């Protein structure tokens, strides 16, 4: 069958995350790892070896060369965020479908230019947010959509932090203003915002107000920050993200009747299964000294890890365009854009003395 | 031995919480339930019957009458917060030691008047925060004090909400401005603030800024709110409290090396044991698809429930004053006062357009 011919994906850059995605491309049943490019041919070759690229995968010493290759359908772009605009637009112009690392752009204006280039050239764009593709995420959504068990949404709380060591804080691209200049907000905060929007069925908040006392490094890159999001109907969400404290990856979504809670929302503790808890309509005993109903743990098995499911979804969309004349999917980039909008608003709020910023979708 | 003669405690009012504390007084080895007072003698008698008071417990039809009884050493005061000042001062003047429900006062100025009356009359004051007396709390504190496992404190996040039904929202004393006029902030928020201060070794934050979009009822009582607390050294804490969403009782304390997490910090799920998790220096596998170290669950048994341990501690302090000439303990009221100070600051911040309020200890 035509649709099992795998989509040929090239990797544009040897970033850390490219190792994980390269494996995911190899594991995805409808994709194949066709090329690697780096500005250094030696580095590209070493990356291909270290990550067990297929023997026939091509190795390029420049991004342009890979983009010129007519045997590549799509690229994974793990470059620093500040380079996305240039290379994503060029990739689109070269008719390469685009799986771009998050955040896809430095701001929504840049993102819109990238998307415009994609639509102009009939190529798919999807960002590299993996957890949205996990079957656990779909199962959790069923719970949030269940008005009997969850009720109406009221509050989301998300916290994603990690402790960066001194080498990271000095040298990592995520602390360099000219590379991943959005710092922890673009890295871990992206997932917090994304999870909050996911829980809100991607309805944008009315306002976003940054929490006070964000921490920047000397170059002005965010190392720690947070924000509150407010919807017109009274729903609220709070998040905190930081490179300055121990790994914490919590997501709590509270409705009028039920609560969803997990502590590994972005990277599940295990590859083959993942859990979350729900607490529905809890009651105490008469004297309120004991809980009569306890949180229930739900465990979801998955044959393929979430990053592979992401690649599979991307390749499925690309195959549809390439073979069936489908239009590029606009659902995934719409999610990316909303996440990027909120991210912009957090920065604007910090720059405006923590005043709430109105979100204009 | 003299010190096993139980401290005789009278209960001033038939509030819901008085049922739990009455049982705790009965269970405490060094206290005895000696009297109940209500403005209605019938109501007091019914309360004594329903809560299995000892046959020799006295039943009073006025608070004054109980306070005049020379055979009462101490009172539990579960009255609405707005009545505390009047009755707590009178109780102190009548030389009754005081276990007062939280929040002990409407604001720190009132609290200081109550404490002054207690010190003037040589009586103990302690507020009714139960969870601080649970052995789990002490065990968690050991973790937070362990610089090898926890590192330096960075972030506290606490969320305590419950879904009030329409009867509660119409009739409960916690939504009446002239009764428990501090609403959810004084009720559930008290515990959030208290837990944050506990995690900070009771070091007051430098500033407190309320989160935007608090919800008040028509009478101006808080039904939902939150705040960020900031310390000079960069530590931060965020909390949210509400009567408008499903029961959530989370506390997460993140240090540079370790994270403490629990979802029932204020009322443990079981009376005889309670758990928390710690995650220390976690690592992913090489590709960051699996956690190599997982949160560890710690379970602490307790022979007596936390509210009984609270009464036991209170009675121990009272016995020391009464029999050994000890001075009233000032540690517990200092904690109450700090909690009350932060609570005042949250309200001040809401009233001042969410500006940060400086805390002057």
Automatic annotation (TrEMBL), chains A, B:
SUPFAM superfamilies reported for this sequence: Glyceraldehyde-3-phosphate dehydrogenase-like, C-terminal domain, NAD(P)-binding Rossmann-fold domains
Pfam families, A to Z: GFO_IDH_MocA, GFO_IDH_MocA_C3
GO function terms (MF aspect): nucleotide binding
InterPro entries, alphabetized: Gfo/Idh/MocA-like_OxRdtase_N, GFO_IDH_MocA-like_dom, NAD(P)-bd_dom_sf
Domain GFO/IDH/MocA-like oxidoreductase span(s) in chain numbering: 146-260
Domain of life: Eukaryota
Gfo/Idh/MocA-like oxidoreductase N-terminal domain location: 7-126
Family to which this protein belongs: Belongs to the Gfo/Idh/MocA family.
Protein name: Gfo/Idh/MocA-like oxidoreductase N-terminal domain-containing protein
Biological source species: Rubroshorea leprosula
Lineage: Eukaryota, Viridiplantae, Streptophyta, Embryophyta, Tracheophyta
